[in-house]
Structures are given as structure tokens and as C-alpha cells.
What does this fold into?
Amino acid sequence: MNAGARKTQRIYLTLTLGNTLAASFIWGINTLFLLDAGLSNLEAFAANAFFTAGMVLFEVPTGVIADGWGRRVSFLLGTVTLAVSTYLYYVLWQLSAPFWSWAVVSVLLGLGFTFFSGAVEAWLVDALRFAGYDGGLEGVLGQGQMVSGVAMLIGSVAGGVIAQATNLGVPFLLRVGVLVAMFVVAFWLMHDVGFTPERSTHPLQATRAVFSASIENGLKNPPVRYVMLAAPFSAGVGIYVFYALQPFLLELFGDPRAYSVAGLAAAIVAAAQVLGGWVAPRIRRLVRKRTTVLILSSSVGAVILVVLGFTRVFWAALLLLALWALVASAGTPVRQAYLNDMIASKQRATVLSFDSLMGSSGGVVVQPLLGRAADVYGYPASLAISGAIELIAVPFLLASRQQHAQADQANAPTDTSDAEPPPP
It folds into this structure.
């Protein structure tokens, strides 16, 4: 990696660190925050579903901004939108507001995150290629995941401890402050290179063109299509499980106000994310096909969730949580690299945003469904059901493998004596 590529990587890691730190202040206590505001389990996860619905609604329009106005503009708009909507969440909590107002602001939160999804990753890949870097992406994306995990570890633990020492609203105010700081950092450091925005098209025409490009370069591309079709099940379950673990672990712990325990759950996920980011490129050196990693990640993760649903011992639940998070995290950089190697630069942010849209669409359905299951049958049963839903992703990943895409074996280990023979 030359000096220009290293500079790009440093900026990417800085943005990842700040953004994840800001977001993670509330990740360990978000469900508890919603329940404390007077919402039921169904309403709390329905609010989360409106958040993911906002991501579904705005992924393509914000993809237009990223590809038409620049990835830097998209990032800056994201920090502003997320800061404002987070503060509105704090106000709703103070007012014990009705559910409809939570639904509206949750959609705005989803809008804020769509400005980031696809844009930052596309900025990184294009800037690295512009700097002359032609190596595998797993290492760079894995380091990004490690930095994100460290930030999440710090932020989630701090958020839980601060909430227990003060109240559940303070971590939301901390998130607002860090987001404002990140706006300043990105304004000075982040510049689009290796990519020229096209601003000549009318916004509505551009949205239609982007949507068409997403279909053409995404769903109409068989190996990409099957990975995207797996996303609603794996991503939808992942979102629910992460937030359901907060009240589930507090039930096992026996103290409903031990917010630091909820922060500990998010911290374990963060630590697993760091380890997963470190492990991913090393696993890749041993496995010839990327889809092998993805299939194993989904299958093993699903089994762990089913076992977790039958666990009644707090420390055993923490161990299973760590294993589930590690398995999922190890597969994430491999999935990102697999998709990026099948997408052209011009449509990169668009297709990555559409992929995020597919994952979010699963969350819109899965979260209220599993939230209702938690109300009726309890959190343990809802976690076991989550594992069964995640298994549905595996046949789609197998179908992607059967397309024999070149990206499946890109940057594969040179020693393949123990690997399966190449397809005819």
C-alpha cells in the first residue's frame, strides 16, 4: 500500500471511528430507552421497524445524492440529519410521547443512516483505486470493522454506565455532540477522488435512473442478486437480536435497572466485531471461495441463536452472544469484498445502498414480528425463532455460489492443494 492509499485508509478509519462512537452511545440501551418511554415490546420494535422502513424509503434517493452530488456531501448531510433526529428522540422520551411521533422520528433516523450506507464504502474503494491500490479489500475493510468494533466497545460501555449513573437520555445527547464534531472532521478531511459526480440529471429522473441501475447491476446480476436476496433474513434477524438482547440479558441477570449490563452486551458484540475484522482476512487465506465463509457464517450463527433461546444461565448467554457476534463479524468483510468486486465504480454507491435497502426491508417485517413473539412467548422463544429465520438465507447464498463468479475466488490463496477443484 503506497502513501496515497495509506492516507485514504487513515481518513476512512477516522470517519468510521467517530461515526460508530457517536452511534454506539445508545446501542446498549436503546430498547430500554423505548420501554422506559412507555412503549410495549411490540411498539418498541415497531419503532425500530419504522427506522428500517426509513432506510428502505430513502436508500435510493440518498444514493442519488452520493452518486450525483458526491460521497462527501452525502456524509455531511448524514451527520446533520442524524444529530437532529437523535435530539428529537430525546425530546420524545422526556414528553412520554405517543407511538405515532416515535414512528415519524424513527423514519428520520433511518434517513440519516442512509446518507452513510454505501457512500462511505464507495468513497473508500474509489479513492484506494485512484491511489493505485490493487490489493484485496478484505484487509482494509477488516481494519475498518476492527476500528468500528473498538469505537462500539467504548461507546456502548460508556453509554450503559452513563445511563445508570444519570438517566437513559444522556447518552442520546452525547451522540448529538459527537456527530456535530464529525461534521467538522469530515468537512476538512473527506474529499471525493477517483470519482466524478454527475449533477446534470433532474432529481426525479436521477432517482429513476439510480433505481434502474440498482436493478440492472444488482438484482439482474445473478451472483449479486442471490446475496441481496439473503440480506432481508440475515440483516433483519441481526437487527432484532442486537436490540432484544438488552432486555433478555437483564431478565437473566435479575435487575431491570442494571443498564451497564445492557451496555456490556453491546460491548461483547463490539469486541467480537474487532476480533472478526482481524480474523476475516486470515480465514480468507485458508478458504478459496468467499461464499464458503458466508454460508458457514449464516448456518452457524442460526444454530447459536436457537441454542441461545433455550439458555437460562446469564454467563452462558453471554458466551453464546460472543460466539454469535464473532461468527457474524468474521463474515461481514468477506461479504463486502465479494460484492464490491462485482460492482462497477460508477454504480458502486448505488448498488451498495440498494443492498442495504434489501437488508432493511427484512428488518421492517422481522422486527415487529419477533417483537410480538417476545410479547406473547417471551424473549427466549423469539431468539430461537430468529435462528430459524436466518437459516432461510443459506439457500440464496448457495445459489450465489453456483454462479461461479470470478469475485468468489478473487485474491484466493495460491496454495489450493486442499481446496476443492475449480468448476468446469
